[in-house]
């Protein structure tokens, strides 16, 4: 049985929304995900589709 308590909810934010001048719409793309804090101690970075930049960008964990 899997142990509880190691998975925490994180927020991933588009790294290009704040600097991209060719954005299709205002706002910042965010995804929520979970990670295992025991095995993933550094900040998570994932390639996700950003609807504001209209392309795949790197989304970084915030907070
Ligand atoms: Zn973006």
Task: Please describe what this structure looks like.
The structure is a single chain. This protein is mostly beta strands and 63 residues long. The protein has strands at residues 7-14, 30-36, 45-50, 55-62. It has a single domain, classed as Single Sheet (Rubrerythrin, domain 2). Strands 2-1-4-3 form a four-stranded antiparallel β-sheet, with no helix packed on it. Bound molecules: zinc ion (ZN).
Order of helices and strands: EEEE
Distinct helical segment count:
0
CATH class: Mainly Beta
Alpha-carbon distance between the termini? 30 Å
If you consult CATH, what is the topology?
A: Rubrerythrin, domain 2
Largest sheet: 4 strands, antiparallel
Strand fraction band? Answer: over 45%
Bin the helical content: under 10%
Shape: elongated
Average pLDDT figure: 92
| Ligand inventory | zinc ion
In the sheet with the most strands, the strands line up as: 2-1-4-3
* Number of beta-strand segments: 4
* CATH architecture type: Single Sheet
Q: What is the structural class? A: mainly beta
Rg over CA atoms, rounded to whole Å, is: 14 Å
Low-pLDDT runs of 5+ residues are none
Number of domain units: 1
